[in-house]
Amino acid sequence: MYNFYYLTLFPAIINTYFSESIMRRSIDNHILQIHSIDIRDFSSNKHNRVDDYPYGGGAGMIMQAPPIIKAIESIENHQKTPVIFLTPSGIPFNIQECKKLALKLKKSKQFIFLCGHYEGIDQRVIDRYVTDEYSIGDYVLTGGELPALVMSDSIMRQIGGVLGNNESLKEESFENNLLEYPQYTRPQMVEDMPVPDVLLSGNHAKIKEWRKKRATEITEMKRPDLIKLKNNLKS
Ligand code: ADE
After folding, report:
1. Does domain 173-234 match CATH 3.30.1380.20?
2. How many angstroms separate the alpha carbon of residue 185 from the centre of ligand 1?
3. What percent of the chain lies above the pLDDT cut of 90?
4. pTM surpassing 0.70?
C-alpha cells in the first residue's frame, strides 16, 4: 500500500480527480491511499490567512512558511518521506524521472506533494523540507495541483497493479524512446479509409515489423529529439 499526501489550498481538486478516474481502482484495490491536506487548517491567523507580501517588495503574494511546515510535520514518518514541490523552476518531469520516482516510491512507500499557489512559497520551506522540485513543462500554471496529479498518475501507472494489463506499459509511447504505432478497431472501413491490410493478415511477425516501422517513422517526423536520444543511449 502506497500513501500519497497532497498539501494544498484546494483539497477538492485532488479528491475529485481520484473519485472519478481510473486511479480510483487502485484506491478501491488498496494499492494506493490518498490524503489531501488543507494547508489553511494549519494557519494560526484568525482569518485563516496563509499568504503575505514579499519581503523586498514586488507583485503577488507569497505562501507563508509556518502553516506549510506544520502541515508537513503532521504527516507520520515525514522525515523519511520525499517531499516533492511542484514548480516551473523544478527539473523537467519525463518518463525517465517518472521511473526513478516509481523506484523511490517502492522504497519509501509514501510521497508528499507540496502544491504551491500565488506567486510562490517562502524559500525556507524549500531549503529545509523539500527533497525534489519538478516542473511538468515550460509554462506557468495557477497552482501545483494539476502537476501533482499528472506526476502521481504517471508514477502509479509504473507500479504494478494499477493498469489491468502490464503489457500496455511495454507497448506504449516512450518505451525504447519511440512514440506509439497507430491503432485501429472495427469497423474495417471508416468513410473511405480502410484498415491497413497487414493488420488483417494474421501474420504476427509482419504485423510486429510494420508497427516498429510506423513507430520509427512517426517518431522521426514528430519527435526527432527522441531518435537522437535513442542513438546516444546506444553509443
Ligand atoms: N506550478 C505552476 N506551473 C507549474 C509547472 N509548469 N510545473 C510544475 N509546477 C507548476
Report:
1. no
2. 37
3. 84
4. yes
Round to whole Å and give the CA distance between 34 and 24: 10
Per-residue model confidence (pLDDT) at position 87? 97
The string of pLDDT tens digits covering residues 18-44 is: 999 888 988 999 999 999 999 999 999
Look at the block and give the residue holding cell 504505432. Answer: 181
Ligand 1 site-directed mutation target among 7, 13, 87, most atoms within 8 Å of CB: 87
What pLDDT is attached to residue 235? 64
Instruction: Assess whether the previous peptide bond of 187 is cis (omega < 30° from 0).
Output: yes
CA angle, 96 then 10 then 3, to 5°? 50
Stretch 112-134: mean pLDDT: 96
CATH class of 2-156: alpha beta
Spell out which residues line ligand 1, taking CB within 6 angstroms. 86-88, 135-137, 139-141, 144, 147
Residue 33 has which C-alpha cell? 491511499
Place of cell 516551473: 88
CA of 188 to the centre of ligand 1 (A): 42
Boundaries of every domain in the chain: 2-156, 173-234
- Ligand 1 pocket test: which of 91, 119, 121, 136 has the largest number of ligand atoms within 8 Å of its C-beta? 136
| Atom number in ligand 1 closest to CA 87 | 9
